[in-house]
Amino acid sequence: LVGKEEISYINLYSSSSYLAEWIGKTVGTGKHIVLMSVNNLFFIKLYLAIIKSGNICIPLDPGIEKVNYRYIHELTNPVMIFLTREVERRLELNSELTWFPDTLPAPPEIYIPDAPGSDFDRERCAEIIFTSGSTGKPKGVMISHKNLIANTSSIVEYLQLTSDDRMLVVLPFYYCYGLSLFHTHLRVGGSIVFNNSFIFLGGVLKSLVDYKCTGFAGVPSHFQILLRKSDSFKQTKFPDLKYVTQAGGKLAPIFIDEFRVAHPEVRFVVMYGQTEATARLSWLPPEVYDRRKGSMGKGIPGV
């Protein structure tokens, strides 16, 4: 992971394992635990720790409205809430269940846990991702460990990801598309670069170049903004960028064509997913794009 904060695999494994053991000792297993933070090390350590401890992670938008938060809280009755202080102030929680980056127990330099037993049930719920859906109240989608493993394997296969891959992440991790970027790159031993301020387009382009990113993922608005609002996106050369992926709604072919003309060496992969499918359901291989414009593609491996 690169950015202002940086972490190696051994340190991520060590700190998330230590926190997982602490969570297990504190609340046991099978409980609901809320996590609210922008993409950062605090988020990924706790996300991994919660599901590793045998509990159920509920990642929520740190900008969630009070009324929606209260509804989800009552529905799920969490036993712990991990968040940053500004989110707590905004939601006026004043709860004894809250934990902050500076109140977590400090892990030892390197912590190697006992190996997990083979009796771990992969059918157990690992997380609940809330989707606003198109109507009504937020709906919680229950995703098992096996769901995460299967969908991650499929995405790694069709994108042919390796440990050389490095993704620029502008999508939040409380959203299944954003989380899938974390799962897949973690799985192959690649790396991810955080950029939580897409509105500063210059910084996004600079991150792509400076950190030698090989991939970028966005929803339709990201590509519309890059193509229409950025003076330099079409002219900038991204020597390491191999592919971009687009999901989260239909992007008009006119934008995709424009992107492909400006950056012919970059594979543009159209995809379709939904929270209920863990993340991904279909993809349109770039080679057939011209014949199948407007299509959401074919089922990914195993779908």
Feature tags:
4-stranded parallel beta sheet, single chain, alpha/beta, 7-stranded mixed beta sheet, 19% strand, 303 residues, 13 strands
Describe the protein's architecture and organization:
With 303 residues, this protein is α/β, with parallel strands linked by helices. The protein has helices spanning 9-27, 41-52, 66-76, 85-91, 145-159, 176-188, 201-210, 220-228, 253-262, and strands at residues 32-36, 56-59, 80-83, 98-99, 125-131, 139-144, 166-169, 191-194, 215-218, 243-246, 267-273, 280-284, 298-299. The strands form 3 sheets. It has a 7-stranded mixed β-sheet, with helices on both faces. A 4-stranded parallel β-sheet has the order 2-1-3-4.
Strand order of the largest sheet: 8-7-9-10-11-12-13
Q: Ends: how far apart?
A: 30 Å
Radius of gyration: 20 Å
Taken as a percent bin, the fraction of beta residues is 15-25%
Roughly what is the average pLDDT, rounded to an integer?
94
Overall, the morphology is: globular
* Biggest sheet layout: 7 strands, mixed
**Which H/E pattern describes the elements?**
HEHEHEHEEEHEHEHEHEHEEE
Number of separate strands: 13
The share of residues in helices is: 25-40%
Spans of at least 5 consecutive residues with low confidence: none
The count of helical stretches stands at 9
Structural class: alpha/beta
